[in-house]
Specification:
The chain is an alpha+beta fold. The chain has one domain. It is built from five helices and six strands. The protein is elongated.
Length: about 160
């Protein structure tokens, strides 16, 4: 589940950031992306269907990565014991569940050779969060960078 949002028309901002030392530029961009991603993260957690444990909602988080000068903010769900995040987001088709290491399954107090699962309806929460809060995230990014640049200007 990866969606990239590209913002066009940032040439002036990039020119301004290029006048700063690379470390400060990287920190400003990284902080701004994290702040913007947190807006979408909060919406994804709000929209996430919650079962008995809330493990899927709790697995939604922001992680920052940089590679060859490119900084990314990722909003991820699932992982570890919450392997079913994509199944909730996209749904599942009708399928048969068969035992892997045994002759039968024990379901609802009965032994079965296989179970016909009707599938699951999709309950998109990640994509919906991006769709509804993308503009707010961009505004948060803009405000964060503006505040940081104002502090740098005031310090000079």
């Amino acid at each position: 589940m990866t969606t990239e949002i590209h913002i066009k028309g940032l040439e002036g901002l990039q020119a301004l950031l290029d006048t700063l030392p690379a470390r400060i530029e990287k920190n400003i961009v990284r902080g701004g992306l994290r702040a913007a991603a947190r807006v979408v993260e909060a919406e994804a957690k709000r929209l996430c269907p919650v079962g008995k444990t809330g493990a899927l909602r709790d697995s939604v988080h922001v992680s920052m990565h940089s590679h060859r000068g490119r900084v990314q903010a990722l909003i991820e769900a699932g992982g570890g014991k919450v392997y079913y995040a994509a199944m909730v987001e996209y749904g599942t088709a009708r399928h048969w569940i068969k035992p892997k290491n045994r002759k039968s399954l024990f379901v609802a107090g009965l032994l079965r050779e296989a179970v016909d699962h009707p599938g699951a309806k999709k309950q998109p929460f990640m994509r919906s969060a991006i769709d509804t809060r993308a503009q707010d995230a961009i505004e948060t990014l803009s405000a964060y960078i503006g505040q940081r640049l104002d502090k740098i200007e005031a310090g000079k």
